[in-house]
Amino acid sequence: PGYTTPVFKGKEEQRTKVQADVSAKGFIPRELVVNEVNWFYSQLGIDDTYFQNESPSVISDHIIALFGAKVLAYTKHDLNKLVIDLEKIDEKGNGATFIHTSLPGLTSTEGPGATCESRIDSLYLDNSTPSNCYRLETFRSTGSISATASQQLRCYFITKCNFPSPPPPSTQTDGRTDIHTVSDTAFLEKASPHTLEAYQKILWQVESRYGPVLEVFEVEGTRERRLVIGYKMGGTSRFFRCVDLSML
To answer: Among 69, 237, 28, which Cα is nearest to 153's?
Structure first.
């Protein structure tokens, strides 16, 4: 695998706190709270990165917002009108979370979800510097929003990079950059040795040429293909949005 699947060890304890918080806020009938919380935690298929990054209060607000959206869609007698737009931008610049309803292969044209990727580019990626840059992870939920609606959630997690200070000593003696000396600590914890090796080769190619470097890797035993793109910091803009559109 390319990355170690994150496992949030405090998830069950957090679930209990979230369930109590949802009940206390009173917007969801008490007899439905357990089911709504369990669906959010167990059926949606949201990556553990979300639960590890967010507080019980924020998660409970998101569960209530999802429930409210389902009620609104029901009153319109059209489950295709079920739209989720959840956003949290850290005021101190430490990152952000964006969660929107998304149909595979279709581009959103209305609502915050339609401009989400462009805003991520402008707010976090386009103006990166070595001292102020961000790591973006994006996932599609593996489950649907509810038992009667087929929409999935597209999740974006942006976190400010945390580079070790001082950086570890380089293992390179030829002047080329050792990926371990310039990588975010969270990335190093999750990336497999195979991924680090592939990224290291891309990094060296980026250092030795102008323009972006693109490589496609086959995942052994599957039909999956992985596209890895490397470019110099500041070497492009609106990169994320353009790449995502090209994949549709």
So the answer is: 69
